[in-house]
Target: cysteine desulfurase
Amino acid sequence: MPDELIYLDNHSTTRCDPRVADAMLPFLLDSYGNPHSSTHAAGHAAAAAIDEALRQIAEHLGGAKEEWIITSGATESTNLALLGHCLHPRNRKRHIVTAVTEHPAVLDPIEMLRREGFRVTVLGVDANGQIDEGQFADTLTDDTGIVSLMLANNEIGSLHPLKPLIEIAHQRDIPVHTDATQAVGRVAIDVADLKVDLLSCSAHKFYGPKGVGLLYCRRQGRLTRIQPRLFGGGQQRRVRPGTMNPAAIAGMATALHLCTEGLSAENQRIATLRQRLWEGLVQRIPGLEINGPALDSQSRVAGNLNVMFPGVEGEALMLASPQLAVSSGSACNSLDAVASHVLLGIGRSEPQARSSLRIGIGRFNTVDEIDRAITMLADAYEQMRRFG
Model:
């Protein structure tokens, strides 16, 4: 990455922490045994490392280590959760409930299930990206087989108050899946306290390596059935077969530990940088508006800032600031020339959505970078407005 680039796109991905890379290296160079080789010491050592990593993951996120399934990332985890549950031969209910602001990793497999004959209810949200509890309760029926609602939104950073919604669903014996990709490592999570049945996340969102993630699948008390989507091996209780990657798994566990350690203080530091960025932009650019919850709200993750820049296209503003890495929405949709479905979902018009940028502040950002980002964005905006 060029030294002069200021990286403020930490919702798309985060830099792998050097301490995470250090934890991974031994499993790439020395302890490289196949963890499923049970006939020699190298395999035993790799298997033991994975078992220890799963123990750490359960310690930080709750649940039992046997309830955590290693995947290639949140997209696979979400597909496995939704398709694996809904298409299980013993799950005969055909109604799914989700929200308009969900990530495509949720909406796309649900759309596939709709084509297979499932009935889908997509709930609207308010200007802060929140679901109305009463509307949610009224949507549930005796035929509702699963609810999927994200814990933290990937564009506007809004945190769903999931706990009461899960309680409402459980009163009708309906399991709940949550896409926690943007929440893990940013807010404290205990799956046992949350009482969620299925949870998805990716390591690369919390300073771990790409290509590895987690699916929590409750086995204690409420058994959540999952039909495997891959075949060809007996690994991970046959739910998700394939040779496991000790280096990536150890890196993910280390990354999670580093995030959990001092989480409150780090969130305060990041929130202070975000406030500095917002105040600096407001001083230079009249008419700026925040998309989603207020910055002083407890309903927004600390590093998120989604801003509407009046009178300019967000994509054009990014092009005019080539030394600044930000985005106009989900990285998964960056090739599609469409307005953000999240911003449209919270009531923004298409021109307003197209005028917005998503900024994600993270662990490695500094005060100096924030100040330079203010100058870059403000100078680019003023130049675009001047020359139209």
